[in-house]
């Protein structure tokens, strides 16, 4: 199914609550494949499973679940689908000022405020934090009223204290309410999502953006902090990582399934992104699973 239109997601808090909490079993999160954005900050916990994540212009692979904090208006795709094999997914969404405009500005909240500002570039948390937060997320999902709110603040506090995290977009990739830019980037990203297994001509993508090729290349680098070729290769390598993790395909088959039509170029690009070749990656993954 093609998704060429940008998707603004309107979010309403749960009844009797100042924020939204959703719990999805297995692959119930049907928005997974839709590229969308919203002003609300979003905390996503995926219990188990592996898959691809696209947050802003960063495309990466996760395994054994995921814990991500996504800032206001940072476009992203959902984490799970029918192939993720996760146990469940908990999604929390809250407006930056859901507790009042001045709440985060009190001294006690300074670290959490810094965390929420950093989240404008997308944050993925490491394994230790993921384990620690799992129980808190489960308890929060069963709590009600004020107790639920206090548990959310407690989770944000723990996330603001840890150093076990990675920022996903080095550049400040988030929407500055430039609707024209947003529409254009959504169109380009969706085109890559739908066609990464085929050859993508730069002229065609520049045409989609109604730009000349040189203008498009400058524009894309300015918005995403990477070249269009880097972006497409990153998408393809992430798909290859997913296939290496989940499918019993030969590395040659994975190369072509991921949109590369040259095996040596695939190996070279894979090593640039992962610091190892596909055979090494699969062998190390097999040792970990054993």
Automatic annotation (TrEMBL):
Limits of the HTH araC/xylS-type domain: 186-284
Organism whose genome encodes this protein: Epilithonimonas hispanica
GO molecular function, one term: DNA-binding transcription factor activity
A UniProt-annotated Pfam family: AraC_binding
Listed name of the protein: AraC family transcriptional regulator
Keywords: DNA-binding, Transcription, Transcription regulation
């Amino acid at each position: 199914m093609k998704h060429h239109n940008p998707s603004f997601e309107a979010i309403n808090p749960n009844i009797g609550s100042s924020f939204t909490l959703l719990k999805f079993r297995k692959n119930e999160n049907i928005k997974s494949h839709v590229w969308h954005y919203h002003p609300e900050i979003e905390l996503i916990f995926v219990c188990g499973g592996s898959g691809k994540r696209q947050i802003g212009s960063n495309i990466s692979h996760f395994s054994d679940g995921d814990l991500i904090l996504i800032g206001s208006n940072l476009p992203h795709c959902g984490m799970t689908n029918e192939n993720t094999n996760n146990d469940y997914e908990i999604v929390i969404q809250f407006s930056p000022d859901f507790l009042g405009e001045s709440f985060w500005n009190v001294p006690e909240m300074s670290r959490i405020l810094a965390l929420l500002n950093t989240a404008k570039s997308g944050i993925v948390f490491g394994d230790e934090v993921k384990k620690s937060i799992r129980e808190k997320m489960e308890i929060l999902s069963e709590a009600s009223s004020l107790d639920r709110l206090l548990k959310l603040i407690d989770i944000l506090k723990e996330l603001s204290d840890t150093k076990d995290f990675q920022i996903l977009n080095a550049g400040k990739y988030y929407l500055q309410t430039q609707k024209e830019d947003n529409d254009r980037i959504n169109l380009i990203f969706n085109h890559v999502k739908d066609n990464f297994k085929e050859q993508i001509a730069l002229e065609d993508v520049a045409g989609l953006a109604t730009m000349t090729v040189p203008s498009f290349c400058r524009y894309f680098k300015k918005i995403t902090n990477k070249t269009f070729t880097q972006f497409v290769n990153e998408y393809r390598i992430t798909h290859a990582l997913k296939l290496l993790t989940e499918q019993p395909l030969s590395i040659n088959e994975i190369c072509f399934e991921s949109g590369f039509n040259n095996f040596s170029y695939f190996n070279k690009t894979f090593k640039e992104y992962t610091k190892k070749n596909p055979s090494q990656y699969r062998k190390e993954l097999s040792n970990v699973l054993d």
